[in-house]
Each structure stands twice: as C-alpha cells, then as structure tokens.
Amino acid sequence: MATVLSPADVERIAALARLELTDDERSRFAAQLTAILAYADQVQQADTAAAVQPAAPAPARLRDDEPRPSLDRDAALAEAPAADRSAGLFTVPRVLGS
After folding, report:
1. CA atoms within a 13 Å half-sphere pointing along the CA-CB vector of 65
2. CB atoms within 10 A of CB 26
3. Which of 19, 24, 34, 90 is the most exposed place for a label (fewest CB within 10 A)?
4. Distance, CA of 49 to CA of 10 (rounded, Å)
5. Rg of the chain (C-alpha set)
C-alpha cells in the first residue's frame, strides 16, 4: 500500500528544504508525490526473478599517479579578487552563519 501524503506533509518537507509554497502548490505537490510513491511501490513489487543480470562493468582505467608541476601559488593569488597574499590564502565570502 502506497503512502498518501497530505498538504501538511508537503509543508513539512518544504520547510526542511526551506521552500515557501502556496496552498495550491501544497495540494498539487501532495497529489504528485503520492503518485510518485505509488509508482515506486509498484516497481518495488515487480517480479525480477527472471530478469537478466547486467554484464559486469568494465574495470576503471586510471592513469598512474605521477607528480606534476602545479600552478604557482603567487600567480594564483595574483588572479584572486580577494586574497591575503602575505599569508598565502584566498578570501571567500562567508557561507555559514551569515
């Protein structure tokens, strides 16, 4: 039996995703998400016993790990819009706790 989502469930999910939804969107998304869950439930119940196993993937081809010359730090810092060149650090906008 598939799960039926209510507009309140969608509101809780939207709050976790920090999305603001209208009443119409909550109702519409509840119906759409319920249909998706019903389809996923239907897929889960499919009999896969006779399904053909896929061929094993080819092993990954990786290059040898060899040291290479890298970009000069002073040259990189010179191209940065904001940097503490004396400390050798890039300055970036704060993303946490702003």
Report:
1. 0
2. 19
3. 24
4. 35
5. 26
Residues comprising the chain, all counted: 98
Element (H, E) at 89: strand 89-90
As a whole number of angstroms, the distance between CA 39 and CA 82 comes to 50
* pLDDT for residue 75 is more than 70: yes
Q: What is the pLDDT of residues 19-63, one digit of tens each?
A: 999 999 999 999 999 999 999 999 999 998 888 888 888 888 888
pTM of the model: 0.50
The answer to whether residues 43 and 2 touch, using CB atoms and an 8 Å cutoff, is: no
The amino acid occupying position 32 is Q
User: Tokens 């969107």 sit at which residue?
Assistant: 25
Distance CA 10, CA 4 (A): 11
Query: In degrees rounded to 5, what are phi and psi of residue 50?
Result: -95, 5
**Are β-strands 83-84 and 89-90 bridged in parallel, bridged antiparallel, or unpaired?**
antiparallel
